[in-house]
Amino acid sequence: MVTRKQRILSGMRPTGRLHLGNYVGALENWVEMQGKYENFHLIADYHVLTTDVDNTGEILANTIEMVKDWLAAGIDPEESPLFRQSKVKEHTELFLIFSMLVTTARLERNPTLKEQVRDLSEQLRSRAFDEVESSDGIELISYGHLGYPVLQAADILLYKGEAVPVGEDQLPHIEITREIARRFNRLYGEVFPLPEGVVVNQSKFARLPGPDGRRMSKSLGNTIYLSDTPEETGKRIMSAVTDPQKVRRNDPGRPEICNVFTYHQKFNPDEVEEIARDCRSR
């Protein structure tokens, strides 16, 4: 008897080229799951609109760059289909239906949303919401942003996804998906599975630091892109912060606090012990 593979839906918002942090945090796991699961990979272009509605002209170019990185990293479209969310009309149709099954009060209690309100309030005031003179509450968030988890539920359940690789911050969204599926099934019959959130890459490399020691992020300008040339990569690495307490070149180093050593641990594990020994002896 052939055992059916568990179905997994993974997705990313197309915000442009991917960096090493994206690779280590998500893409590497996607490649490893090929063959083990029935994988679907979503280009979540509608989700970009929740926080970047005034830059829609960049979505197509960003999609192309992101998919190029997916393919270069080892995603095989023959084995793991990729598709654009906006090209499958059933995503928005199911989103509309699901939006009738969840209250705004439930969405406002989403802890991920509360964090985003804090992070985005200043940015939103200066853009489409600049008519709001002063606010620190939920009124700064658009209806579409508030309903982000509902659209995510439609993305997952449309393909009857049974598991979703996520970071810990996305687990509340998966719980909302499960609540929506349970209510739909109770009202209309057993249609959707209750997907599980699978927290991936809980190692210390899950949030790979940038060369400056902060979390690698496009917004911080400290990224090493997958598509960088060897020369560009070398230049970024050479600019990296190493041991901030090392005053003289010949002072002994401390690899445990060196950003470059973190890269060696992840990408050059066979030589880690020798590199650490050399670092401490200088």
Structure description:
The protein is mostly helical. The chain folds into 2 domains: 7-199, Rossmann fold (3-Layer(aba) Sandwich); 240-280, no CATH class. Helix content is 45%, strand content 8%. The protein is built from 12 helices and 5 strands. The protein has helices spanning 20-33, 45-52, 59-73, 90-99, 104-108, 111-125, 143-146, 148-158, 171-188, 230-238, 259-267, 272-280, and strands at 7-12, 38-43, 82-84, 163-166, 196-199. Strands 1-2-3 form a 3-stranded parallel sheet, with no helix packed on it. The chain has a two-stranded parallel sheet with strand order 4-5. Strand 4, helix 9 (171-188) and strand 5 (196-199) form a beta-alpha-beta unit. Helix 4 packs across helix 8 (148-158) and helix 8 crosses helix 9 (171-188). The protein is elongated and about 70 Å long. The N and C termini lie far apart (61 Å). The mean pLDDT is 86.
List the helices and strands and how they pair.
Elements: E1 7-12, H1 20-33, E2 38-43, H2 45-52, H3 59-73, E3 82-84, H4 90-99, H5 104-108, H6 111-125, H7 143-146, H8 148-158, E4 163-166, H9 171-188, E5 196-199, H10 230-238, H11 259-267, H12 272-280
Parallel strand pairs: 1-2, 2-3, 4-5
Helix pairs in contact: 4-8, 8-9
User: pLDDT under 50 segments (min length 5)?
Assistant: none
User: Count of DSSP E strands?
Assistant: 5
Question: Averaged pLDDT, please?
Answer: 86
Which strand order do you get reading across the main beta sheet?
Answer: 1-2-3
**Radius of gyration, rounded?**
21 Å
Q: Which second-level CATH architecture of the largest domain applies? A: 3-Layer(aba) Sandwich
Fourth-tier CATH superfamily name of the largest domain: HUPs
Structural class: mainly alpha
What separation lies between the terminal Cα atoms?
A: 61 Å
Q: Tell me, what is the CATH class of the largest domain?
A: Alpha Beta
- What string, H for helix and E for strand, traces the elements in order? EHEHHEHHHHHEHEHHH
- Total domain units: 2
Give the proportion of residues in helices: 40-55%
Number of helices: 12
User: β content, as a range?
Assistant: 5-15%
Tell me about the largest β-sheet. 3 strands, parallel
Global shape: elongated
CATH-defined fold name of the largest domain: Rossmann fold
